[in-house]
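Exercise 7.
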Amino acid sequence: MNSYDYPDVTAVQRAFAASGKRHLVLTGGRGAGKSTLLSAFFGGEIRPGITTEACPGVCVTLHDNLGGDRFTVGRFDAALPGIDRKMRAVPGVFDIKGAAILRRLAEADAAAAGEWVTLDEIGYLEADSADYVCALGALTDKKRVAAVVRREVLPTLSVFTDRDDIFVFDLDAPHGRTGCVIMASGMGVRFGGNKLMAPFHSKPMIAQILRATDGIFARRIVVTRHADVRTYCEALGADVLLHDLPGRNDTVRLGLAAVGEGTDACMFCPADQPLLRHSTVSALAMATAGDPGMIYRAAFDGVPGAPAVFPAWAYPALSALPPGKGGGVVMKQYPDRVRTLGALDAWEMTDADTEEILRELENRK
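Solution. The predicted structure, written as tokens, is:
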């Protein structure tokens, strides 16, 4: 995981909401905090559902959160091969008792039990139970499901994990392999000079976007035409590409060439939005990682803006933009593949185009 060791729960909630998906899957390695995040996602409130508990070297029990039943579903068997999967499913328990719980949860009155069911967790023990897997599929047709799922290849569970209406959040890679291009090539004509080095709370304004994008991306680069911006950013350990080309399309192309290889998506961040929050940048990257077919962009009160994140399928179009144009060209080509994530306020997306605006933004921090 990145230097921000545990994901911001509100950022996960915002990413999920922006996706418009019906169900949520949390995955990750052992000890990643999947169950903790599932609880935090619902504010610590216990939802109807199933909780499994493992007693290492002994057994696995299943607890019906709604009905209160608890029973053993797996027992430790040292003779099983390998170092994992040392629990052997108790014959018939998932098919009979487990499937019955799922069917009861599916039919539970929404007014009393709510629209959500939580399953913590789904793994290899239940994967071979045809009745349980069938009941799981039926449950997702009736309820919204938030589930912790072990990171394993479990073909029989594809009835759930391969659905198009599921948002997958991986705690081991919460932002996926996303790159970031900081767009810092503007000449500041309206500002009267290089605004990126103008003071903002005693630091150059460019420092704000470095803070907002810190610790999130697999690769990040500042693309600029200003030597003083390069010097400042490199002193802070940021990668910089200095160029002398005139167009916005040039900045996009050069930045993408620098970070695109090996990434699944790329975010383009204006360098002149000093109130852009780290949580908003994080949520945008999370949204694209969990819903990789879509372009995500920040918006406020229904008005879209920047930053924006483009999946790798859009890289060829971004690399061939018309002179002077930016990523908006690609969004217009694929309007049905664009989704918005709400900024927390309008000031996040405000460009400091003049010194007066910059001072107003400084007073609002």
